[in-house]
Amino acid sequence: MKENDLPGIHNSRDILHLAARRLSQAGIDSPRREARLLLAHVLHTDLSGLLTHDHVEAGQVRRFEALVERRASHEPLSYLTGNAGFWSMTLEVSAATLVPRADTETLIEALLELRPDHDRVRRILDLGTGTGCLLLAALQEYQHAWGVGVDLSPDAAQLATRNARQLGLSGRCDIICGDWAQAIMGRFDVVLSNPPYIPHADLGGLMPDVRDYEPHRALDGGADGLASYRLLMQCLPRLLSEQGIAIIELGIGQEHSVPALAREAGMEVLSIRADLGGIGRALVLRPHGEVAKK
């Protein structure tokens, strides 16, 4: 898509038509919707606001064209717009973190079902927090809770801190840069985590949007995809309060292997909650009584 392909009047309808065609040729799903989202981003409006923009200025056209070409190269839409929706929030995202996904909302749904009494949740820990999506969604729901988010990446920790500030939650959480729970003391009512779980050999077969742009450190689960789960299971017994629960995201086909690791670590498997696609996504654990009392 080049500027000389566009009508001289820069009519938004014609611009969107050409952009959608370019994205469709590149194999992008929902090309017209994505073109509209990109144009709305350039024009600093929303989709309904596009109805009032018949004419697009030349400078805006150039910015839009550049974004369309980047999306045609399968750079994630959220990286281009700088934000993504999760739960009831709009979060800043960057190439330092995974793009929050709707499947991960299954963990928050499980938490709300298991802890309908919001006074029971006062301390929340999110290991591998990324954008902070899990921690911040939980804090929005549990108004009396305080939380900690941990991420190995300084850039991710800074981004999660900004998201907490934008949502008015920075006074109720601490975001720290660290290696899983090595620097964490005390016990929590809830531990959340979406760890890396893609087997290393499978990374090359991921969709180009993920493979070529999202951070591999947040995807690579080692040779069998279970490396991060092994580390998590080692620390969960000392992190959970006696009545605490852990809710951990699973990858496809891990609904047997990860619970087995949890049981070996002295954890009790309460349930596995499926996402909207029917895939076992949220593993719910609690410590056995004798483990929790240590």
Automatic annotation (TrEMBL):
Chemical reaction(s) catalysed: L-glutaminyl-[peptide chain release factor] + S-adenosyl-L-methionine = N(5)-methyl-L-glutaminyl-[peptide chain release factor] + S-adenosyl-L-homocysteine + H(+)
PROSITE patterns under this entry?
Answer: N6_MTASE
EC numbers on record: 2.1.1.297
Q: What class of enzyme is it?
A: transferase
The terms under GO molecular function for this entry are: nucleic acid binding; peptide chain release factor N(5)-glutamine methyltransferase activity
Q: Coiled coil: which residue ranges?
A: none
The record's annotation in InterPro entries points to: DNA_methylase_N6_adenine_CS, HemK-like, N5-glutamine_MTase, PrmC_N, RF_methyltr_PrmC, SAM-dependent_MTases_sf, Small_mtfrase_dom
The positions annotated for binding S-adenosyl-L-methionine are: G128, T129, G130, T131, G132, D151, W180, N194
Entry's SUPFAM superfamilies? S-adenosyl-L-methionine-dependent methyltransferases
Q: What GO biological process terms does the UniProt entry carry, in alphabetical order?
A: methylation
Q: Which Pfam families match?
A: MTS (PF05175), PrmC_N (PF17827)
Task: Kindly list the positions annotated as binding substrate.
Answer: N194, P195, P196, Y197
* Keywords annotated in UniProt: Methyltransferase, S-adenosyl-L-methionine, Transferase
Domain Methyltransferase small, by residue range, is 109-197
Give residue ranges for domain Release factor glutamine methyltransferase N-terminal. Answer: 14-82
Q: What does this protein do?
A: Methylates the class 1 translation termination release factors RF1/PrfA and RF2/PrfB on the glutamine residue of the universally conserved GGQ motif.
What does the similarity note say? Belongs to the protein N5-glutamine methyltransferase family. PrmC subfamily.
Q: Which PANTHER family match?
A: HEMK METHYLTRANSFERASE (PTHR18895), MTRF1L RELEASE FACTOR GLUTAMINE METHYLTRANSFERASE (PTHR18895:SF74)
Q: What is this protein called?
A: Release factor glutamine methyltransferase
Identify the species of origin.
Novacetimonas cocois
